[in-house]
Amino acid sequence: MKRIRGNIALNDDRNNTILQDVEIWLTETTDQRSGLRGWGGTFNLARGKWLDPMERYFIELEDGRSGEILLTRVGVGTNHPPAVNFLGSGELD
Predict the structure, then answer these.
(1) What whole-number distance in Å separates Cα of residue 60 and Cα of residue 91?
(2) Closest Cα to residue 7, out of 67, 68, 60?
(3) 43 forms bridges with which residues in the sheet?
(4) Which helix (H) or strand (E) covers residue 54, if one does?
(5) CA distance 30 to 33
(6) How far apart are the C-alpha atoms of 35 and 74, rounded to whole Å?
């Protein structure tokens, strides 16, 4: 996993950024047989923030890459910030 910072926007609208400068743990994989690439990761929500798993979100990383993400888990935190797990949909470019 690689640690990187980025922004999270609702849908594909970079003007609708809902989380800024989030620390993201990003994993990128390549299947050895097929050559298919995948990506996903996790980040924590600030207290009082919530993301709806049924919405579409867009991630823009500090290195300029971006892509659509699908939330696979939004944890509930009592003593810790809620953790969000996601999978990338399509290319991260």
Answers:
(1) 12
(2) 60
(3) 24, 84
(4) none
(5) 9
(6) 30
CA distance 35 to 83: 30
Nearest to 89 by CA among 52, 59, 61: 59
Whole-prediction pTM value? 0.89
**DSSP for 58-73?**
EEEETTS-EEEEEEEE
Distance CA 84, CA 92 (A): 18
CA-derived radius of gyration, the chain: 13
List, for residues 39-50, the tens digit of each pLDDT value.
Answer: 999 999 987 788
Structure tokens, 21: 């400068």
Mapped onto helix, strand or coil, the DSSP state of residue 15 is: helix
